[in-house]
Design brief:
The chain is mostly helical. Mean pLDDT is 85; it is low at 1-6. The longest helix is centred in the N-terminal third of the chain and has 32 residues, at 50-81. 82% of the residues lie in helices and 0% in strands. The chain starts with a helix and ends in a 5-residue tail after the last helix.
Length: 433
Amino acid sequence: MSAQRQVVYQPKRASMAAFVGTMIEWYDFYIYAMAAALIFGQLFFPNTSGFYGTLASFGTFAVGFFARPLGGIIFGHIGDKIGRKKSLVITLFMMGGATVFIGLLPTYTSIGVWAPVLLVVLRLIQGIAVGGEWGGAVLMAGEHAEDKKNRTFLASFAQLGSPAGLIMATLMFKLVTSLDDAAFLEWGWRVPFLFSFVMLVIGFFIRMSVNESPEFLKAQEERQKTQNVPAQLPLKEVLSKHTLLLTAAIGANVLGIAGFYFTNTFMLAYTTQYLKMDRSLILNGLLMVSIMQFFITPISAHIAKKVGNSRFLIITSLLSVFTPYVMFSFVDMGTLTAVTIGVGIAVLGLGAYYAVIAGFVSEFFPTNVRYTGISMGYQVSGAIFGGLTPILGTILAERFQGEWWPLALLFSVISLLSLVSVLTLASRYKPVV
């Protein structure tokens, strides 16, 4: 490798590539979430009731989360040993390919039990891909920052891909759900999945235009100077030397992951099945909230840069303890304005938190295990809390029909867990970058 290449920083291009890449990957992930809430129960589990069909559908959704730690391990190793860029290109193809195949998948009426089996397999591939995607995108953006004070702000562009992907997914489902029910059931639901092929091609060329992370190249050069010293596997080093740090990172990510799937995936099922709202109403509300979150993300990262990451995260997670009670009070009114305001208030806190948490957590892991460390923190959190939150919410909604306080309490517990974890990180660790 040349010395010239080692010092080439591309903060604008890297942050834009992180944004576009994660937008595509999260689009793929969210269209599955929406399909799971709206239609997959009927298509792949037709012999079950509405409640159990939704649970089964959300079960396939959760499978993707359970696979994400494996993706974090595999691609964390590739990213820490071979390169961030190579890892990201592979995850892009895996995610896009699996999504397109879901769009081509026969339903239960065509091939019977093989339909849900193949759906689970493709969901596993999606989960492994997104498990490796997030950490690499955050690092490719953040590690291209010449001024380390800009690391969290640049890393927020990877976080910006989440609301952007949700906006695109919501728009696509608004388009296809405007079809009559027969057309939507027969072929309309496939359109959002097949459209992913176009995005896959665009994402590949954008990713290939960015140089490898300068910090990774420097760390690689240092390793070459000490070839006589046997290097530990990144995962082994994280588990043996940074156990408490990893545990705190898992907890710190809960609000940004579980809170987000609570407000979009679960609320989509809750409002349509238990409050009997029209699906177009809740999709319109979620679309407006997603647009709001898109603008919240860079603004939040900029504010955090001024007031300090830990202080900002403590304030937003504390606010999020109380916002679900306001959210459900508004959502129960059943109007588009009330639903948008209610969900928007909850997303205001958790969206601001999500914008900053990636850059904050990445500061505490050494460069040589950073990809693995932040990926495992995020993906294990997703596997435990992200995948189970819609299921637990559905169970609570069924058990306490007509009462929303148990659901609000669940959201408060999620927020408190992240608050305690951020306090732990801020008090026990110092940034290594």
